[in-house]
Here is the input.
Amino acid sequence: MKKILLTTLALVLALSLFSAGTKEQAGGRTIVVGATPEPHAAFLNLVVEDLAAAGYTLKVREFTDYVTPNEALESGELDANFFQHIPYLESFNRERGYHLANAGGIHVEPFALYSRKYGSLSALPAGATIAIPNDPTNEGRALLLLESAGLLTLRPNAGLEATPLDITANAKNFKFREIEAASLPRVLGDVDAAIINGNYAIPAGLVATRDGLLVEGADSPYVNVVAVKEGRENDAAIVALVNALRSEKIRAYVASHYTNGEVVLVTE
Here is the structure.
């Protein structure tokens, strides 16, 4: 009787382990990715079937801010996210003590200064109010863009950590409003100009190369990447995801939908 009981317990344990292993394996075939709507989520939705053919179920969760998708990635709610450039990711790691890593660069969205009131950079009046992103690195990126055009001077070595407090020369006495990046298109009509990230400018119908009064150069270092937790960069599922986002299907989509250079794919 004792022998039968032990055999039964062993069988139950084996079945339990098999069930757990099967569940873990099945979970590993699902990739949950957080993204801002355009172009990131649009790209991801394009490759759902491609990843399915490779044996992966891709689930896309859309976010409209820059903080929540990184919190969800760090906590394990997401397998990856796709919305940010490397300087922002590195800044987030430093500030929060997070452990996020770049799994592969996909594209660049030119950063630009837009205005509903003025048609050229030279037309911006003295004392103009310019709205800029209030998040780390993108705020500095905005101020560096203005500095590149000779509109202001920043404290030496301020770099991407720059804020308006780092401005040492401002000949036209520009005023700055620090606004959450997602809200910048909505406040554009209320200020003289605004510097807006591509993933918020595009859904608002703004095209950097057409509407921008000042646009980053083609050598922009702000490549948007697929981000994961450190140590997962080479997971088979993540590699498959990155490869899908670098596919000819994505190139064809960009060529047909972003004909004015709103999105520039990178070559890895």
